[in-house]
Amino acid sequence: MQHAGVFITFEGGDGSGKTTHINFLARALRDEGREVVCLREPGGTPISEQLRDLVLNPENEAMGSRTELLLYEAARAQLVEEVILPALERGAVVLCDRFYDSTVAYQAHGRQLPIDFVRAANLFASHGLVPDRTVLIDTQAGAEVGLKRALHNRDGDRMERAGVDFHTRVLQAFDQIAADEPQRVKVVACQPTKSGTAQLVFQAVADVVGWDPEHLSFDQAYFAQADAITSRNKRQGGEAR
Ligand code: TMP
Predict the structure, then answer these.
(1) Residue 206's domain spans which residues?
(2) Residue 181: inside a domain, yes or no?
(3) Kind of pairing, strands 185-189 and 36-40?
């Protein structure tokens, strides 16, 4: 699907730090005067946020895997129609925390629903929209560590409570998706510092946002801001503008 904007999605297991890197990239693009729309899936519209509450609420123990799949797809269909397609038509850069690769990883591999149906449902809900680039954040730490990080100081949502075996299947599925579509999906291995990881994220999206991947015009000092910005952002509970 042709559009004037750029559509970049971020994927990874729970607790992989995607949000941090989305915020940091958004800031760099906005500093260049570009319109950036940051979204999360499920979510990003009033209807999709209500569906998010429903699908992630740990009290909904009775929810079946098919219901779960359809709720994620419903949230996506609304987000694509109401926000993503109009933003791309305006020429914005859309950064989305998760998109249909998560459905393949969590519902087809995690929940073990039929992959062909999941793919067809993804196509339908996303109106055929394919990300220009997908950044897969790989903590290289395994499901258990990721879950511990995600559940630090809180009880966990319905998906986070699905267990280590489930989340191990999810991580393996993301690796497979990256291997199957190397042009679209770039794997970023987490570095010891956030600034190191941020630098790799910038390189991974450079060509699609029009930066020279070999000579990014951001120096070490720029990337060193990553920690300060993200901790301030966490305190404020919002995205970096
Ligand atoms: P997050 O926004 O904190 O990552 O939470 C979203 C959760 O929903 C996360 O556990 C991944 C899961 N998920 C799916 O299972 N299927 C999907 O299609 C999407 C978008 C997310």
Answers:
(1) 6-236
(2) yes
(3) unpaired
